[in-house]
């Protein structure tokens, strides 16, 4: 019990399997952190951008609570059941003092989080400005909504109390986070290598989450509770178009993560000074 390693058998493969399992657990922990942080960055960006632009609030508190408790919780838990990467034993051992989140990984958090937030705001703006069933307001009217009651307008100020735009924003946030959950099947492996069905628990959690979200949209007592309204098919198509690019963005980031360090700039480091000089060796 005082030794660094206790061998249960004399098969070296047991050690290899234990190391692989340990690396897989560590990677899944990183993926859980990555999913939660990038999702929460998206929510912060959404609220911050809407406030800076002077638009109405895109999400009400009860909607944010729904996103955090239900749509984030189930997929995040299922990420812990990810299978090992195909190259889990090809990477070099990490240093004991190595940070869980390094600079490049934090950059990836920020890129995905910023896109999640901007996509959520874009869904809100789309309904007011471009949607066929929306008011088709000029963008300048949207960002000056707070002065609507003090000036003459061609539309009713009650349009800013409509629940439709916040419903679109909330649904974009939910769907984009479901796609982002698929990104977290692996830190660097593409979805073409590790497909979604490799983690059936994650697929099941996404399906359950979307069913729950559809229920609150189309069942009246729940829709009133969460300040949402039913969406049309054209709304769902726009939501999908705004949400799916998060997979393409992360695939590009994974591609650069898989490139060996220095290859992009053709840097080759020669470390001749690591060997002792010939005179020293002769001594």
Contiguous uncertain segments of 5+ residues: 262-282
Terminal Cα span: 43 Å
| β-strand number | 0
- Summed over residues and divided by their number, the pLDDT gives a mean of 83
CATH superfamily: Calcium-transporting ATPase, transmembrane domain
The main β sheet shows up as:
none
Work out the strand percent: under 5%
- Helix/strand order: HHHHHHHHHHH
Count of folded domains: 1
Keywords: ATP-binding, Magnesium, Membrane, Nucleotide-binding, Translocase, Transmembrane, Transmembrane helix
GO molecular function, one term: metal ion transmembrane transporter activity
Main location: membrane
Subcellular location: Membrane
Task: Describe the structure concisely.
The protein is mostly helical and 283 residues long. The protein is 58% helix and 0% strand.
